[in-house]
Design goal:
Layout: H1 2-6, H2 11-21, H3 31-43, E1 47-50, E2 56-60, E3 72-77, E4 99-102, E5 105-108, H4 115-129, E6 138-143, H5 151-155, E7 165-168, E8 176-181, E9 183-192, E10 195-197, E11 202-210, E12 215-216, H6 228-243, E13 246-253, E14 258-259, E15 263-270, H7 274-291, E16 300-306, E17 311-313, H8 315-327, E18 331-335, E19 343-355, E20 358-367, H9 370-385, E21 390-397, H10 407-420, E22 425-429, H11 435-441, E23 446-449, E24 454-455, E25 463-465, H12 466-481
Parallel strand pairs: 3-6, 3-7, 7-23, 8-22
Antiparallel strand pairs: 1-2, 2-6, 4-5, 5-25, 9-20, 9-21, 10-17, 11-15, 11-16, 12-14, 13-15, 13-19, 18-19, 19-20, 24-25
Helix pairs in contact: 2-4, 6-7, 6-8, 10-12
């Protein structure tokens, strides 16, 4: 099936994408893709550097006649979000992505596709390998661990790059020119609890929430998508209020930057209440599905009999933590007062794990305003601390402040208008891009972000539009021709 992808135009782009997608590249396990990129640079005879944290830099001189142009940095990240459907058998640590063509889209079989940010990486690779594409001096920067901490961008030291302009190829709408983004902080609540022996008169059930779309916890946080952790908590809370439901364990969500699609819980109820409990759960499920039917038509809430668990949570802790999850904000906290339709501050309750006497609730809080980010993080902290949790802030990274006077913005805008006979959408986004972090050590570097249409990023529904990739490729080539002189 990947052969069908290799036959797509532009072949230079899609073939490099197929090469890249054959290499396992989970965040924080990028050793193989780092070596892949170093081998690629060495094979081309280009100066290739791996820095202290694992970022790879490949430098290519200007083509004939372009030597007097400003040096540019072309940047994308090597890692990808690893998400799969529950019924998909796939090992991200050992297997390459299985791709196929569906009309105007490239998709993956039951997993994320890796177009975020693999198409950006492939673009840079194709240009580095080319012998007939005019371009200025290029410093190709391939960062690591963008999806789970941005530690690559954070670890990049000043002085390694000499370019004056950075082209970040990590935007997912082909009519958008990115000039700013949100910062973020990981908020993690933890506590321990005592387990109790499950009374003999209890019986076991599994509650499962699945079929949600999931998606990007920044770019799609305002869309009203269902959050499996919040839905699960609502169901369990109702079961406790009405039937004394007791929780044995919960496993919901996965990565912080992905809206959680699935959650499973093992619970126990009084056997005498089974019939009434099942009727109530069915009614509750139908109510929630009706609320979300427009955005989440495939949502399922399943309650099935299972073995009675040996242990259940301490009752007081269960009451506290379910109330805390209910109270914790998920979704948009504040819209921007300065940029129309831009989410300023949000939170994603990404992962809830309760098992073997330990609780962990993992959130990702984003904002383009640092004070608002801290305000929401402290709101979450206070919520979880009220139920006895210890709360940690980690992985804090800054946003990227727009520079509407940047010369590269004018260049890119003019090129887009010339090619498409319309103005691009110049905007900041609510995702976390690496530009803000890179700008800390390279404060004088002008930055811009753009890319092809990618839908469903961070979910197994991720797909890349073929016609958009063709539009984007032409855009890139024209931008390279128009880079200003020194």
């Amino acid at each position: 099936m990947s052969q069908d992808v290799r036959a797509l135009e532009p072949k230079a782009l899609w073939n490099k994408f197929a090469d890249l997608n054959a290499v396992p590249r989970p965040s924080k396990k990028e050793e193989r893709v780092i070596q892949f990129m170093k081998d690629f640079g060495a094979k081309l005879g280009l100066e290739t550097i791996e820095d202290e944290v694992g970022n790879v830099i490949i430098k290519k001189p200007a083509t004939a006649g372009m030597e007097d142009r400003v040096t540019i940095v072309m940047q994308s990240h090597l890692d990808m979000v690893h998400q799969k459907n529950n019924d998909t058998v796939f090992d991200f640590d050992t297997q390459g992505i299985e791709m196929y063509v569906d009309g105007d889209w490239v998709k993956a079989k039951g997993t994320t596709l890796g177009a975020d940010n693999g198409l950006g990486v492939a673009t840079i690779m194709a240009i580095l390998e080319s012998t007939d594409i005019p371009h200025p001096p290029i410093e190709a920067l391939f960062t690591i661990d963008e999806e789970t901490g941005m530690t690559g961008a954070m670890g990049l030291k000043g002085g390694l790059l000499t370019g004056d302009i950075l082209l970040n190829l990590d935007t997912e709408e082909d009519d958008e020119i990115g000039v700013g983004c949100a910062g973020g902080v990981d908020v993690t609540a933890r506590r321990t609890y005592e387990e109790e022996e499950t009374p003999e008169f209890k019986t076991g059930y599994q509650v499962e929430v699945k079929g949600l779309q999931g998606g990007h916890s920044g770019m799609q946080i305002h869309e009203g998508l269902g959050n499996a952790n919040k839905i699960m908590n609502r169901v369990l809370f109702d079961g406790f209020e009405n039937f004394g439901l007791r929780i044995s364990q919960i496993e919901g969500g996965s990565l912080r930057n992905a809206i959680p699609r699935e959650s499973k819980a093992i619970i126990a109820i009084d056997a005498i209440h089974e019939e009434a409990f099942l009727a109530e759960m069915n009614e509750q499920a139908n109510t929630i599905k009706k609320e979300l039917k427009t955005m989440e038509p495939d949502l399922e809430i399943l309650v099935t009999k299972t073995e009675t668990p040996e242990k259940i949570m301490d009752l007081g802790v269960q009451e506290g933590v379910t109330r805390a999850i209910y109270a914790a904000l998920n979704g948009v906290y504040r819209m921007s007062a300065d940029i129309p339709e831009l989410v300023e501050t949000s939170n994603n309750i990404a992962r809830v794990t309760i098992k073997d006497g330990e609780i962990e609730i993992a959130c990702l809080t984003r904002s383009s305003v640092e004070s608002s980010k801290l305000d929401l993080a402290n709101t979450l902290r206070a919520t979880f601390e009220l139920t006895g949790c210890e709360v940690e802030f980690s992985g804090d990274y800054p946003g990227w402040t727009p520079n509407m006077d940047a010369s590269i913005l004018k260049v890119v805008t003019n090129v887009y208008e010339r090619l498409n006979n319309e103005k691009p959408h110049v905007a900041a986004c609510h995702a976390g891009l690496e530009c803000g972090i890179l700008g800390q050590n390279y404060p004088d570097m002008e930055m811009i972000s753009f890319g092809p249409n990618i839908k469903g990023a961070h979910s197994p529904d991720e797909r890349a539009q073929i016609s958009s990739a063709q539009k984007y490729w032409k855009f890139v080539l024209e931008i390279l021709k128009d880079i200003p002189k020194k």
